[in-house]
Amino acid sequence: MGNINGLVALACGLIVGLGAIGASIGIALMGGKFLESSARQPELINDLQTKMFILAGLIDAAFLIGVAIALLFAFANPFVPAIA
User: Fold this and answer.
1) Cα–chain-centroid distance for residue 48?
2) In angstroms, rounded to a whole number, what is the distance separating the alpha carbons of residues 30 and 51?
3) What is the pLDDT of residue 3?
4) Each residue of 25-38: pLDDT tens digit?
5) Which of 68, 62, 79, 65 shows the shortest CA–CA distance to 7?
6) What positions carry a catalytic annotation?
7) pLDDT value at 84 more than 70
8) Which pTM does this prediction carry?
9) What are phi and psi of 34, to 5 degrees?
10) Is there a contact between 74 and 8 (Cβ–Cβ < 8 Å)?
């Protein structure tokens, strides 16, 4: 039983950690491309900024879904009743 709880805690850490790394890399790349495109065409900054914020929300939403799944596994572990 303790082994399963330990492995679930390790999996939760991996889900949150890798999700955070992926989301931060994605937002960093998108922010860099936004700065490049706004430097090339300053008249499109408002349109590009709106699209950038929508995409940033979608990237963060994917990370938050991973956090919710990790919290589900941490507090309402579905693997414990299957073993007992």
Assistant:
1) 22
2) 10
3) 83
4) 999 999 999 999 99
5) 79
6) 60
7) no
8) 0.80
9) -65, -45
10) yes
CA dihedral for 61, 7, 73, 79, sign (positive or negative): positive
Give the helix/strand (H/E) hosting 18: helix 2-40
User: 29-78 pLDDT, tens per residue?
Assistant: 999 999 999 999 999 999 999 999 999 999 999 999 999 999 998 888 77
Q: Where are the domains of the chain?
A: 20-76
Cβ atoms of residues 83 and 1 within 8 Å: yes
Residue found by looking up tokens 């039983």 in the block: 1
Count of helix runs (H) and strand runs (E) in the chain? 3, 0
Superfamily per CATH, domain 20-76: F1F0 ATP synthase subunit C (1.20.20.10)
